[in-house]
Sequence to fold (113 residues):
Amino acid sequence: MKLNPKYFNTIKNGSKKIEGRLYDEKRRQMFRDENMFKDNVNTVTFICTKTDQKLTKKILKYHIFDSFLSASQKYYQDMIPWAQSYEEVVNVYNGIYTHEDQFKYGVILIELE
Fold:
């Protein structure tokens, strides 16, 4: 998954513990099996958009929501560590994904080790 340097570095240093994405077809294929974590070998690789540096993190679990509004009300501090409120997180994600796409696909929060 590609990330801009700001978010890539916060995952790298461990302060960002949850990555949020649309729960679109690509993510549905990745997370289609509830038993995917039984052997604790599932990982995700992030790629910095500026440097092409790669970082692989273990996936602990994932959460499905209907929008970033509902997701961030519970997990906002782990989604964007410097956010002071869930509204701030919602504004960031609404700048990336449209409301229509959020409600069409839902969202997935990927919890990282």
The helical segments are 5-12, 25-30, 68-79, 86-94, 99-105.
